[in-house]
């Protein structure tokens, strides 16, 4: 969503108290005379406020960049997407003022700016406390806030996870600004006296994080490239998605094999799998099989038995999680950041068409319940995309008798098994997109009951054993 610079100026002036407080925060952390890169620089006021020796502002709006360059000729501004920026130099500070709320792929952007970092670079970012979402929506409705596209409402846990996945470690986290409007002595009392206090600080509007590159990130990336990967694709009545699963798949590590397990389809999926295997045999290592049992869980286990890679990834053949995002699952496991990578579709906005409200509520309920049972925070328990190392899967399979064959979906089997082995489980944020072919095989009410039964079973076996 592009906004005219005159409109940006209008909204800045209307909420000047808020913007000046933001500038005060960044001036506290950024030492004057440093090299500073700002992603999402807007009108350039913040970059000017931190007084860099060299400042580079990047924004996707051409008109905003033109206006910024005209207003601040001592700084440099470029039209660039934060996910693609490549200035071929390093900076002392990289600042993102609410930029993570707008970026399509936050992890990609954070990984991309790693090449702009030296060992002492500080990444400073601010974002809005998710508890303020209804208040800010109301402010927009009554004309006190600029109309905006749908945002990423990230919690600190989400931001910390994204930073860690991208090779950073959090050094500092805080919150400020209880009252973002200038009401003279009232605002002073709220923001200078009350806002820093325990409990009340949790209610502040702005959250800020200071992070730095993880010292071992470069060596871990070298390790990632030496490992191999197996992507297991269970497929039932998904003939129209099979070829896209191949053509959109990134190369993962030293070698990637793709394993299709066809599950008693009625739309020619098996014929399509065979055709695709023959067509791409010279470019991809593709293995295929027809399922011997029933249910996705059975298909996944059959695929794992055929897999030879160091890292196993499950990709649902409806492609509502994009094949392009498999790289994040592979890197999370191959780098050792986590031992079970769990896809999470609830970090970024999801339309009501793609995931109706009732489905979203059910998903959040089961995620909360499973998090309680496993003593591990999981934000999306029902995303089919997961990853685990071959070594840890072998341990999980050997220990499967503790739970038994109770899960037809395979998701709970992996999550509970990983928890039983005390494996480190982490969410991998993905964007949930509409399927382009076919319809869902899920019977929501029936399978919701099955999920609840599995949770009760897990409670007995883990929490109340």
UniProtKB/TrEMBL annotation:
Boundaries of every Glycosyltransferase 2-like domain copy: 230-369
EC nos: 2.4.-.-
Transmembrane segments: none
Keywords: Glycosyltransferase, Transferase
InterPro entries per UniProt: Glyco_trans_2-like, Glycosyltransferase_2, Nucleotide-diphossugar_trans, SAM-dependent_MTases_sf
One GO MF term attached to the UniProt entry: glycosyltransferase activity
UniProt-listed SUPFAM superfamilies: Nucleotide-diphospho-sugar transferases (SSF53448), S-adenosyl-L-methionine-dependent methyltransferases (SSF53335)
Pfam families in UniProt: Glycos_transf_2, Methyltransf_23
Record-given protein name: Glycosyltransferase
Protein's organism: Drouetiella hepatica Uher 2000/2452
């Amino acid at each position: 969503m592009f906004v005219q610079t005159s409109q940006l100026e209008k909204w800045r002036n209307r909420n000047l108290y808020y913007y000046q407080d933001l500038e005060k925060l960044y001036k506290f952390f950024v030492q004057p005379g440093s090299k500073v890169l700002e992603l999402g620089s807007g009108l350039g006021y913040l970059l000017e406020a931190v007084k860099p020796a060299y400042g580079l502002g990047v924004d996707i709006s051409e008109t905003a960049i033109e206006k910024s360059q005209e207003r601040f000729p001592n700084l440099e501004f470029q039209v660039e997407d934060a996910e693609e920026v490549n200035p071929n130099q390093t900076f002392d500070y990289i600042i993102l003022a609410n930029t993570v709320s707008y970026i399509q792929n936050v992890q990609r952007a954070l990984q991309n700016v790693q090449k702009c970092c030296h060992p002492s670079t500080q990444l400073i970012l601010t974002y809005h406390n998710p508890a303020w979402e209804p208040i800010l929506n109301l402010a927009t409705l009554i004309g006190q806030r600029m109309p905006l596209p749908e945002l990423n409402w990230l919690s600190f846990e989400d931001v910390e996870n994204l930073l860690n996945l991208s090779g950073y470690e959090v050094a500092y986290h805080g919150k400020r600004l209880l009252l973002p409007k200038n009401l003279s002595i009232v605002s002073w009392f709220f923001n200078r006296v009350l806002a820093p206090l325990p409990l009340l600080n949790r209610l502040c509007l702005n959250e800020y994080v200071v992070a730095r590159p993880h010292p071992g990130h470069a060596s871990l990336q070298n390790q990632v490239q030496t490992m191999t990967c197996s992507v297991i694709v269970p497929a039932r009545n998904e003939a129209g998605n099979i070829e896209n699963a191949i053509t959109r798949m990134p190369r993962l590590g030293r070698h990637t094999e793709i394993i299709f397990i066809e599950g008693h389809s009625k739309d020619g999926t098996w014929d399509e799998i065979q055709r695709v295997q023959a067509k791409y045999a010279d470019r991809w290592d593709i293995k295929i099989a027809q399922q011997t049992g029933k249910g996705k869980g059975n298909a996944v286990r059959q695929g794992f038995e055929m897999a030879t890679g160091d890292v196993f990834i499950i990709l649902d053949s409806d492609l509502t999680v994009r094949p392009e995002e498999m790289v994040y699952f592979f890197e999370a496991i191959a780098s050792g950041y986590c031992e079970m990578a769990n896809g999470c579709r609830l970090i970024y906005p999801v339309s009501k068409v793609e995931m109706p409200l009732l489905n979203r509520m059910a998903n959040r309920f089961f995620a909360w319940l499973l998090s309680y049972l496993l003593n591990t925070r999981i934000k999306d328990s029902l995303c089919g995309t997961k990853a685990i190392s071959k070594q840890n899967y072998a341990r999980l399979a050997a220990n499967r008798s503790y739970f038994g064959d109770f899960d037809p979906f395979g998701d709970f089997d992996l999550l509970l098994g990983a928890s039983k082995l005390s494996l480190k489980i982490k969410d991998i944020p993905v964007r949930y997109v509409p399927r382009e072919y076919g319809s869902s095989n899920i019977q929501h009410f029936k399978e919701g009951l099955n999920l609840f039964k599995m949770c009760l079973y897990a409670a007995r076996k883990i929490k109340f054993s």
